[in-house]
Amino acid sequence: MSNARCLLPVLLLLSLSACGAGEPAELVQAERDTAAKLVAAFASSLKAELQTAIAEGGPVAGIRTCAERAPSIATEVTANHPDWSLRRIGTRVRNAATNTPTEAERAVLDSFAAMPADQRPGPLAAADPDQPRRLYKPIFIAEPICLTCHGPAEQLAPEVRGELAKHYPDDAATGYAMGDLRGAFVVEKR
Ligand code: HEC
Prior knowledge:
Blueprint: H1 2-21, H2 29-77, E1 84-90, H3 96-99, H4 103-113, E2 134-140, H5 147-150, H6 158-167, E3 181-189
Antiparallel strand pairs: 1-3, 2-3
This protein binds heme C.
Heme C (HEC) is lined by residues 47, 50, 54, 59, 62-63, 66-67, 70, 88, 90, 93-95, 98-99, 139, 141, 143, 145-146, 148-150, 173, 182-183.
């Protein structure tokens, strides 16, 4: 009797750890908090650098910041969190090499796009059932500055259009309006 009583917690523990070794476990609250901090730091650094670059060098300098600094800011923000990665995906993409959503991610974006306006900007959520350790945060066009480079192509300044065409001949990330879903931040723990 007393043996059985001792065994039960042991069995429970064993089954829990067996679970952990197989399927990737969902993130615990502390990990979700870390994820939220990393996304917030990525978003605010990127925006700050973009605003500074545009204020100092105009939108063409901003394009360079977005292209060159976005991946390096992601690396800097995760420097002390080597198990984590950060990236962005787009509903339509400018940099198809790094920012194209997978099929599952496209479904995630579709669900964000259907989100009622009063629920925005939306949570940092695990939205891909096959990737429970990958969290998504929607990115809406919330500020007019975004339209400088993502607004309707015919409304972009000629130098912006020229610079974009030079670096992104297959650019699909124009034609957005205020309030549109632009994409998502993707944060993942290995
Ligand atoms: C000065 C021009 C410029 C401005 C302003 C700008 N972007 Fe971008 N954006 C770019 C460029 C260039 C890329 C491609 C970056 C790369 O090569 O990875 C990009 C890429 C993105 C992506 C990744 C998906 C993709 O299309 O490759 C998202 C999401 C995004 N921008 C959102 C925004 C939001 C939101 C704002 C407003 C806060 C904004 N951008 C303002 C130039 C700009």
